[in-house]
Each structure stands twice: as structure tokens, then as C-alpha cells.
Amino acid sequence: MKNNNIKKLFNNQLKETYLIAEIGNNHNGSIELAKKMILSAKKNGANCVKFQTFTQKSLFTKKFLDKNLSLKKDVEKFTLELNDFKLLKNFADKNNIDFAATPFSKQESDYLIYKLKVKFIKIASMDINNHPLIEYLSKKKIPIILSTGFGNKKEIFSAINILKKNKTKYIVLHCVSEYPPKNKDLNLNRIVHLKNILKVPIGFSDHTIGTDIPFAAISLGVKVLEKHFTLNKKMKGWDHSISINPEELKKISDFKKKINQAMGINHIYRVETIQNTNAFRRSVVAAKIINKGKKISFSDLDFKRPGNGLPPTEWKKLVGKRAKKKIKFDEKIFLKNIQL
């Protein structure tokens, strides 16, 4: 998307849901695979591709990894170097799709903001209580997407208050950080609740299987939908099995275009044409022959199609008045036909 649309997004002025293909670490440490995923995300309707920049040093203690050698091996295999993201950012720019990332340290944050010049930063669910990082990022005056997974009410609003205090543009994502979550735990009504109380753009970071729940979230009016993305769900790695594939991404993209258009605006108006309205509505007609000079009663009236005569709402203007002329059975009755 163009930069002005990102501004509209954070100002809550973008009508269509902003669709983020969360590549995360589904690139499996391969720049070439990451590029293929960027192209596929663009082709199938994503507005943005998002990555995660964590490394062994920025996320785990050495002691923890030494005790979890399998995890250590996966981290080494499935992560990229910071400079790799510069290549991917340039590739995304070249292919006209937004690029974003989630930093896990001050160093990664500065790299994304100052070196890559990303247009917004995502704060991961796990960092909802990482006030030092939230404070650091909020002072950078860069728009922030805050995911609320793992957070209770107090933690969520404490994080939001930091952003508000520093006058940061922000979007809040409802999120259940289970992989995958149970339907009974999704609480999608929180989306509506957050919209009403925060008055900022609200989105949804979805970890369910398939497309049904994203459809529901879009129908609730989320401004951002983030969904893990893969080229092959059977690929080895952390999130492939719970991710959507290109075909599912296309379904979500098509649906959000259709439903966002169908949602319309908060205003009551008639869209049916006058021609169709008249064809389906009724007019006041004579239920029987009404002779000239007869005082009209309600029993003299009936209401039938088409609706291009006196509308049924006006029947009281006829009752008690006398007919100026003979009115045939089923003939439309107009005000000009009576003595006012």
C-alpha cells in the first residue's frame, strides 16, 4: 500500500481491512524462500508482509538455550541476520507490498526504524508487559501495532497508557496466543468492545486453522487482520501447520474486499431505484365502485401494486371526503379525485 494509506490506517480512516501476511520465521532461514513468500503474498492479496527479527541473543538466555538444545538448533536454523532483512525490505518495496517486522530488542528496533525506515512497528504479544521496550519504541514517534495476546485487562491497558502518554499513533490487535486456540476461547466480541472504548483502529491477530474465523473478524469491522502465512503447511518449522497457504490467503483477500464494501456506512438510506420501489409497493385503489358524490369510507379502499399512485400512508386524507367523479373498481384514487 502507499504511505498515505498507512497514515489513513492509523488515523482510522481506511475503509478496507489491512491484510498482513505474517511470514514470521516461516522462511526457515532462507532468503530465497522468503522472497517467494513475499511474491505469493502480494499475488494473493496481502497488503503487507511481516517478519520477526529475533535471534538467540535478543530473546533467550544462554543458560536456557543450553538446556534446550533442540530449540537452540531450531533458532540457529530458522532465523535470519539483521542485514538479511534489508534485502527483503528492498525486495518488498520493488514488488509494491508493505514490509513490517516485530523487533525483540532495542538494537533490532533501531535497525528497523533507522536503517530500513519501516512505516510502523509491531509489538509482539509476549511483550505486552515489556514496558521498557514499549516505552523505548513509543518515544521513537513511529506508529505501533500492539498485540494483546498473553495480556490480562490491567496489562493491556498499562501498555496502551504508555503509548498514549508518548502520543504514539497505535492500533490494538485482539489476539489469543494459543497455537491454535479453541473456538470457545476466541472471544471475538472483545473486538467490538475495544472499538467502543478506545476509539482507535482495532485489529485481530489470528492463530486459528483455516479461514472461518478471519471471515468473522472482518465482518466485525477489524481494520487489521494478521494471519500466519506459508507456502506449504507440511513444511518443517514452527508455524507452518497453523498458517494459511496461498489459496486461503486469496479467499480471505477476496472476502474482505466483498464484505468491506458491503458493510457500507453508519447511515440509513434507500438504495433501491424509484422504478423498483414503485413496482413492489402499493397504491390506494378502489375496493368497489365509488359513485360520484359518495362519502368515502375505509371499506371503499384497498391497497395494490404498483406503487406509483397515492401511498397507503395517505389513506386518512380520503376517508370522509366525497368523490368528485365515479371511481371504478381497482382504479387508483388520487387527491384530485376527491373534494377536499
Give a nutshell description of this structure.
This protein has 340 residues and is α/β, with parallel strands linked by helices.
Count of all domains: 2
Order of adjacent strands in the largest pleated sheet: 3-2-1-8-7-6-5-4
Percentage of residues assigned to helices? 25-40%
Largest sheet features: 8 strands, parallel
CATH superfamily of the largest domain: Aldolase class I
Classify the fold: give the CATH topology of the largest domain.
TIM Barrel
Assigned CATH architecture of the largest domain: Alpha-Beta Barrel
CA-atom Rg in angstroms: 30 Å
Please report the distance between the alpha carbons of the first and last residues: 64 Å
The proportion of strand residues reads 15-25%
Low-pLDDT residue spans: none
Shape: elongated
Task: Report the top-level CATH class of the largest domain.
Answer: Alpha Beta
- Tell me how many strands there are: 12
Rounded mean pLDDT is: 95
How does this structure look, described?
With 340 residues, the protein is an alpha/beta fold. It folds into 2 domains: 3-263, TIM Barrel (Alpha-Beta Barrel); 274-339, Type Iii Antifreeze Protein Isoform Hplc 12, CATH 3.90.1210.10. Helix content is 38%, strand content 15%. The chain contains 13 helices and 12 strands. It has helices at residues 3-10, 31-43, 56-59, 62-67, 69-78, 82-94, 106-115, 131-138, 153-165, 189-198, 212-219, 246-263, 274-280; strands at 18-24, 48-52, 98-102, 121-123, 144-147, 170-175, 202-206, 224-228, 283-286, 301-304, 322-323, 338-339. The strands form 3 sheets. Strands 3-2-1-8-7-6-5-4 form an 8-stranded parallel β-sheet. Strands 9-10 form a two-stranded antiparallel sheet. Strand 4, helix 8 and strand 5 (144-147) form a beta-alpha-beta unit. Helix 2 packs parallel to helix 6 and helix 11 packs parallel to helix 12 (246-263). The longest helix has 18 residues, at 246-263. The N and C termini lie far apart (64 Å).
